Amino acid sequence: MEILQSDVLQIRQPEDIVLVRTAVRKIAIASKLGLVDQTKLVTAASEIARNTLDYGLGGEVRVDMVRDARTGVRLTFTDEGPGIPDLERAMTDGWTSGKGMGLGLSGTRRLMDEFQIASKVGEGTTVTIAKWSR
Amino acid sequence: MEHIPILRMGEFLLITVQVDMHDRLAMKLQDDLTERIVRFGSRGVLIDISGLEIVDSFIGRMLGNIASVSRILDAETVVVGMQPAVAITLVELGLELPGIRTALSVERGMQILRREAELAGLEVLKDANMEEDGNPPE
To answer: Where, if anywhere, are coiled coils annotated (chain B) (predicted)?
Structure first.
């Protein structure tokens, strides 16, 4: 997989989530995603960025325009927060540890073509999501 | 400070969300709106979200909170103008905005609010008449 373009954005305060949404929208358009796929990707980015801020205590996201057989957008969210003790449970619809609606992770996975999550208690969490042009 | 304008149209309030809302802006809208409903005795709130390119769970929760608080204060809320791509995304995300009335356009939203306000007005009249007749209300 070839990376055509890459950018890193900080997620430290609520306003940064808006900046992430704007940057992801821009790269989704450049990657020739359709309007519905753009909307799904930006919504997913917003959900994960909020998790990074609220549960991961802040972190960053790498925004990549990638090319395999098709072009697409890959987002990698990283934080050094407390980590998620029970990933399986965190991926269940309706489960929430805090102020959300419990749709964040499981709902976001449904919006994406690719979804990976890795977490270590005490070390942090990395979420990678991708959407490909059709 | 940055804020989303709330317009008063008779007994209704109209809000057009045109900017990508960050969290503090969303919270401020909730507070401002509640204050206006009480100050003007508003019967309905119309929220036009045609300018919103996404609705995530945070914004969805805010719309739900506005609808709940308004209802407690005796005002109906209708959300109008959702973009088709936003609707598709919301359903797939599993966020179906329970408790929020929606309409396709501002015009249809206003129709709903007027009808609701009329119905509520009739109920009040009926209760008043019953008391004059000396019959206990049901």
So the answer is: none
Both structure tokens of B93: 């995300």
For chain B, say whether A108 makes contact (Cβ under 8 Å): yes
Confidence bin at A131 (pLDDT 50/70/90)? very high
Selected residues 22-51 of chain B with any CB under 8 Å from a CB in chain A: 22-24
Sort out which chain A residues have CB atoms less than 8 A from B94's CB and list them.
93, 103, 106-107, 110
Q: Is residue B1, in this structure, part of any structural domain at all?
A: no
Total number of domains constituting chain B:
1
Range list of β-strands (E), B40-120: 44-48, 76-80, 101-103
Residue of B nearest to A38 (CA): B85
Residue among B82, B76, B135 at smallest CA distance from B106: B82
B78 located within any domain = yes
Q: Where are the domains of chain A?
A: 2-132
**CA A118 to chain CA mean position, Å:** 13
- Site from B57, B65, B82, B83 to mutate, A interface, most A CB atoms within 10 angstroms: B57
Taking CB atoms and an 8 Å cutoff, what residues of chain B touch A11? none
| Residue B61 lies in domain | 6-133
Give, rounded to a whole angstrom, the gap between the first and last alpha carbons of chain B.
50
Q: Which residues of B touch A12 (CB under 8 A)?
A: none
- The CATH number of the domain holding residue B71 is 3.30.750.24
Q: Domain A2-132: give its CATH code.
A: 3.30.565.10
pLDDT beneath 70: ranges in chain B: 1, 130-138
Interchain CB contact of B88 with A (< 8 Å): yes
Q: Are A55 and A61 in contact (CB under 8 A)?
A: no
Q: Which pLDDT belongs to residue A123?
A: 95
